[in-house]
Amino acid sequence: MARPGLTRNRKFLRLARVLGGRAIAFGSLGLMWEVGYEAGDPRLGDSVSVESAADWQGEPGRLTAALFECGFIDETPNGFEIHDFWTHAPRYVRERAKRETEREERGVSISELRREAGRKGAEARWQAQGRHEASDDSRMATDCQLASTPSTQHAKDKIEPTLSSPAADATSSSLGLTLEQAIEVWRSACPHLPQPRPTAKRRRHLTARCRDSGFVESFRDVCERIGRSRFCAGESERGWRADLGWLLERPDAWVKVLEGLYDDKSTAKNSASPDASMLELFDEEVQ
Q: Domain limits at 227?
């Protein structure tokens, strides 16, 4: 990333003269700075590392000597580094370095940061899906009300099979679990969570989940884990609550529940606020 006014800078013009052209000087500096910006570190290393960063194809040592002579790199006991790196680094590089320093001071690893950020993103998607599903259920309830009148008996005949007919549930039944059975297990294990109604959409999702190896066998255990989870019960900053629609629609939701990602933490710090650090870390990641 070339700096504004670079090609009119006296140091640059001198480097171009030494290397034999402005294009060579411009490209070498741009590639070298890009490596530093990507790493968030002005340190380049020895002469070989400097010229590798700039993709120098000429005589070994010549580019390093020219960059040093013209003041674009400095020599330190640990090798060469980019001159005035933090003075000219773009804003996003400086802000990323600041967040990284704060992360290290808190003792949070990169993998933890990414995992918690991903969980917050998933929570936002689940909330959005819940709103969409609530809207679908509302429209279906309206359709059923209209179907109950004599003038719309034909429409009623079309709606009811999608909700309760054996034919609509045959596929999931043959795979070991019907929607009615799933709802019964959910109500038993999670009486404090939103209680589902049978819909065509949930039947389709249940059929897909039943084809996942291990889903049917572990379904009761999954529901019981959700029922014991404070996070799934809405004890978080955003108040998200698990429901059967989420469990059936998200292909990896039941696996994550079995892996313990939604279990209550054992330490007092985590049990006080199940997702406080998750929300904070995700905000930092997306900035």
A: 108-286
Pick the closest to residue 14 from 63, 66, 51, 49 (CA basis). 66
Does residue 49 lie within any of the structural domains? yes
| Beta sheet of 73-76, edge-to-edge order | 43-45, 79-82, 73-76
Residue 17 is assigned to a structural domain of this protein: yes
137 shares its domain with 265: yes
Whether 1 is covered by a domain: the verdict is no
CA-wise closest residue to 88 among 172, 1, 161, 200: 1
Residues 42, 49: Cα–Cα separation, whole Å: 12
Residue, of 6 and 45, whose pLDDT is higher = 45
* Average pLDDT over the chain, rounded to an integer: 79
Is the confidence at residue 179, as pLDDT, over 80?
Answer: yes
Exposed/middle/buried for residue 211 (C-beta within 10 Å: 0-12, 13-18, 19+): exposed
